[in-house]
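Fig. S4 source data, part A: sequence.
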Amino acid sequence: MSDSRPNATPAANFLLLAGSVLFALFLVGALEGVLRVTGLGAPDASKTSRLKYQQIYFPILEPASNRDGVDVLATADTRLPYQSMLRDKPQNGFRVFTFGGSATAGLGFSPNVTFARYLEQMLERAHPDRDVEVVNLGIVALASKQVKLMVADACRNGDADLVIVYSGNNEFLEIHAEKFEKAQGVWISKVRDIVLDTHLYRIVNRAIRGAPTKPSLAEQDFSKEDLRLTQHAIIQEIEMSAEEIAEAVDAYEANIDEMVAAAQETGTPILPLTVASNWRWRGREDLPADWLDELLGGPGDASPARYREALSVLDSRVASAADAERHASLYQRAVAAEALGDHAAARDDFRAAMNQDPHLRRALDSMADRVRAVAKRRGVPVLDTIELLSASANHGIVGFDEFYDYVHFTPRGALLAAAGIFGVIHETGMLPPAPAFDANAYVAEHLAQLATLQDDYLDVRNWMGIGFDSDAISNRDLWKYDRMLADLDRRIEEDPGDLGAIVYRGNGSYFRVDGAQDAERDYRAALELSGDDPVIRANLERLLVRRGP
């Protein structure tokens, strides 16, 4: 029997399809509405940022046991180096936690080149009768919004004798990323973002993939290229209004205040630090050699007369330039003033250029003012890292002697910061005086050693993470430590008998949360090659005692 129904017209087919799509959207929308009302599929309440690498998960330190059976609390988040502290603090213990972002973490070097580790060494030498523990919980890219939660947790659960906060370089990171995404986004990515932010998607995603896992810079669903992007491309393509900056600075002060309040509520001493930066930073490249010629419209020498002429031109530019452009003219004026020997004017202009940098890669002086204000209001000590470094810097201009890039310490900068903290600890009576130990002499001793250093130390306690290149200390690459580790693998592949590379790789693994087995392998291989070198033997024994089975 034949079908006598008339064929559907294209218009009818379109209406049927459109109706089906609208009905499906209605059902999805209704289901999403029910889920929102009931709270099912709600965002993770612990999520503090849209950026995955800014998430934190508690507990930061988890129960573990060393191979000798000693109970400890150890870092589990692989963004942190492996560290442990005794689960039950001894009566003579002095326990310190340090918090912040990559400047606290020591990005670019091994965990030894941090103010936390230098402080620990100073305290151990000054107070050999105390069980000193300095746990560095600085994590790359964290802002004060995340740090305040970690500080509150440490004050409640860490039995801390001191909490140190050096946080402020990442306050604009999340908003930079959001602005960049909006500027670069196409319609399909915007639709994707809407879908990803639905309760229905989260329920389905969790059902398929399970609960979120702890973050790691090594293994997770974002790569280090994401972090590199935040440090380079993003800041070149976004702008922030004065109102947005002021709002971020206000939020920063509120977060610092919450940290101090959490410490005071638990009776935990806290030391906030102002966050310093490299006033000479212009980028990976300095001013071009012909910048004067370009400014003055023709070739010429670098005579005092030409620098004075440049100052006249730059004075006009600074007075008339738009906010987004003024920092470049301020920087050039600083260079010209310095060339003429006016170091006070140069210092002021370098600092002003930093504060007016539209890329906002460094903590602003206005943020340091807020740290000082919180400390005064709450009645707690403060270490003014900015003034500390400026006091010892060449002509008072904080630069590449203290920071290898814009915010990350050189060994000198980290040593000076540690000595400053050491001084505050004793000036405020947190520990009794230690007249037999001279922190300034300790700093001078280490700087003298660095001045003659060729290859890195084999001893894991002193290993800097520069490998075979002492010039890496001043290299401006944020990710030089990672590249050094990759180079060690290449060297060992080419020469399996490269003793130094094997020990260095073992040292790198020693500091990884998941690296104990790799470190033991490399140390044992190095011992066979060296004929039982005492330094390598000590590295292995330290590993076997301090790490769990």
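Fig. S4 source data, part B ends here. Strands lie at 61-65, 71-75, 84-86, 93-100, 131-136, 162-166, 270-272.
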